[in-house]
Write a structure and sequence with these properties.
single chain, alpha+beta, Sulfite Oxidase, Chain A, domain 2, 10 helices, about 20% helix, binds ligand MTE
Length: about 300
């Protein structure tokens, strides 16, 4: 009998999350299951209702399990399977985001207040990792520019710097992870204001699972995945281009802009094609990850080989 690959399954055929969460809760009660299973037990994610947002691709979403079990989140391990096992240590409530720097109205926001700033939208975006794999995810959030407008940036705000939570008590040390913490990222102001840039709280109709960046992350779909910083605690408006984690770690391989670009190879591998998680054959990578119509004008006149 042919075995169904996860890629053959339709979104609706995937085990509902509540079912497998219950299964895990049951399993973790079995003494033999021990610490390993306890570690993988996910919190029961709350549902998030959202209206359909613009810019959604009509491509088939990647199965939830793939998106929630193959992750990069170095604070919880450098292997793709480790964040889903370890990120349950992250305490996502209470959660605040400090918004500061060159703004008229700096404020430390409670996450709940941020989430009320605009209607939540579901947007199905392509997401392309610099390591040449990709996923299609129904994210839930609203444009980052909603939060930016609320704090009224001054004319000195030319870039936006983002910072993730870091707590050495339950996250990897810099030495074990091989990168500096806290994880930091940045966008030019016009990129951050672009309606595609999403402040994201959920996926697949639910709150984000911890390993995908709970309780709040960025999704910048025309850039390589590492620009989409997870578990954000600080947003600062600045005059100069801010440091970014992967550029600090290896500036030859990772630039500030990091727009998806099939014509500029990574020094160690090609960026011309990608493997969609759950699929066998590779597909061609598209300029700006397929969002060129929306964002190419942001980079008119820039040499994208120099500003990679
Ligand atoms: N954010 C933090 N705080 N720490 C990380 O290690 N990894 C980045 C990005 N955001 C990372 C992060 C990288 S390399 C990628 S490819 C994406 O998260 C992966 O997002 P995903 O696991 O939801 O697919």
């Amino acid at each position: 009998m042919p075995i169904k690959k996860s890629s053959d399954l339709r979104y609706s055929e995937v085990t509902p999350q509540s079912t497998y969460l219950n299964r895990r809760t049951f399993l973790s009660a079995v003494p033999l299951a021990g610490a390993a299973l306890l570690a993988t037990r996910a919190k029961a994610a709350a549902k998030l209702s959202a209206i359909k947002g613009p810019f959604s691709t009509d491509e088939k979403p990647t199965p939830y399990q793939d998106v929630a079990s193959y992750n990069n989140f170095y604070e919880f391990g450098t292997g793709k399977d480790q964040p889903s096992k370890n990120a349950n240590r992250l305490k996502t409530s209470p959660w605040t985001i400090a918004v500061e720097g060159a703004v008229s109205k700096p404020k430390v926001f409670d996450l709940a207040d941020v989430m009320k700033m605009a209607p939540l939208e579901e947007r199905i975006y392509r997401h392309r990792c610099v390591e040449a794999w990709s996923i299609v995810v129904p994210w839930i959030g609203f444009p980052l520019n909603v939060l930016i407008k609320a704090v009224e940036p001054t004319t000195k705000a030319k870039f936006v710097a983002f910072q993730s939570l870091y707590d050495s008590k339950y996250m990897l040390s810099e030495r074990s992870a091989g990168i500096a913490f806290p994880y930091v990222e940045g966008l030019r102001m016009d990129e951050a204001m672009h309606p595609l840039a999403l402040l994201c709280f959920g996926m697949y109709g639910q709150e984000l699972p911890n390993q995908d960046g709970a309780p709040v992350r960025l999704v910048v779909p025309w850039k390589y995945g590492f620009k989409s910083i997870k578990s954000i605690v600080k947003i600062k408006f600045v005059e100069k281009e801010p440091p970014t984690t992967w550029n600090l770690s290896n500036s030859r391989e990772y630039g500030f802009y990091s727009n998806v670009n099939p014509t500029v190879d990574h020094p160690r591998w090609s960026q011309a094609s990608e493997r969609r998680l759950g699929e066998f054959l590779k597909r061609k990578t598209l300029m700006f990850n397929g969002y060129a119509d929306q964002v190419a004008s942001l980079y008119t006149g820039m040499d994208l080989r120099k500003y990679y």
